[in-house]
Amino acid sequence: MTSVTLTSEHACFGGVQRFYQHASATIGLPMRFSVYLPPQAAQGKVPAVLYLAGLTCTEETFMTKAGAQRVAAELGLALIAPDTSPRGAGVAGEADAWDFGVGAGFYLDATQAPWSRHYRMESYLMDELLPLVTDTLPVDANRLGIMGHSMGGHGALTLALRHPERFQSLSAFAPICAPTQCPWGHKAFTGYLGADTQAWQAHDASALMTQRGKPLLERPILIDQGLGDKFLAEQLHPHLFEQACVRAGQSLTLRRHEHYDHGYYFISTFMADHLRHHAEGLGLQLP
Questions:
Q1: Preceding peptide of 39 cis, ω within 30°
Q2: Is the pTM above the cut of 0.90?
């Protein structure tokens, strides 16, 4: 069993907000994550939502900026937020750019040296972190949702598509929907996966949904996108995921909002809707 250190704990809306560090066997470095346990967790296991943050963020960003705990406490949902990349790998150039390397793990397993040694975020999340949380905390391994923002929205969509048996609900805020067709994706995939663009398709939500050719979930996928988002036209391409869902017969609720930008003022505005979406998908009775 991985040794886990509780680094801080805070009472919050009748539940508890915790921050942890552990030695990750998958990453080969210390990793940090955060968990919010609602008051209902004192009586037994509760369903949970895994939240994947965006570029430059950490395991603290969502918990301190999204305003999620109050609603999670009302619904009886646990919240899990990992860090966005390994830290301290010592790879040359890993901290040179905000959109690659530290803070920009893209929730995949790198195949190219030198990144492949430590940058293994998909395996870390699916094979190590989620089992660790569900084995040691009152979190139900059979009732998990996933959501994310921007790079984390890419992660939520692709991990749900790549591991359809693991998640019962899915949502995203301003996700990178077609990374094979945008500069952020080209930069990350070239570095982590190499020059073979065919290999990139396995980590592109629009391509994965098209290849799947059938619905992922019975319930709709929820995506919110701000129309005042400066990254929308060049980086995000939600219309491509929308088209892929139509072709696959997947129900999608894609809401476009005038004036809202890419940040946490936008996310916090619609967070309650997302948590209620997940609560319904995970079988909770809504208050």
A1: no
A2: yes
Q: Is 149 assigned a catalytic role?
A: no
Q: Is 169 a catalytic residue?
A: no
Cβ(233)–Cβ(204) below 8 Å: no
Question: Mind giving me the DSSP string for 6-74?
Answer: EEEEEEETTEEEEEEEEE-TTTSSEEEEEEEE-GGGGSS-EEEEEEE--TT--TTHHHHHS--HHHHHH
SS3 track for 180-220: HHCHHHHHHHHHHHCCCHHHHHHHCHHHHHHHHCCCCCCCC
Catalytic residue among 24, 34, 85, 150: 150
Write out pLDDT tens, residues 116-170: 999 999 999 999 999 999 999 999 999 999 999 999 999 999 999 999 999 999 9
Candidates 262, 274, 277, 278; catalytic one: 262
Asked if 229 and 236 touch (Cβ cutoff 8 Å), the reply is: yes
- Which one from 83, 109, 224, 229 is the annotated catalytic residue? 229
Q: Half-sphere exposure of 60 toward its Cβ, with a 13 Å CA cutoff?
A: 6
Residues 165-187, mean pLDDT to the nearest whole number: 98
Q: Give the model's confidence band at 34: pLDDT under 50 very low, under 70 low, under 90 confident, else very high.
A: very high
Longest dimension (CA), the chain: 51
**Rounded alpha-carbon distances, angstroms, from residue 189 to 106, 145, 160, 206:** 9, 26, 19, 15
Assess whether 150 carries a catalytic annotation.
yes
pLDDT at 237 over 80: yes
Distance of CA 220 to the CA centre of its chain: 17
Tell me which DSSP letter residue 198 carries. Answer: H
Res 1 pLDDT > 80:
no
Specify the amino acid at residue 228: G
Count how many residues are written for the chain. Answer: 287
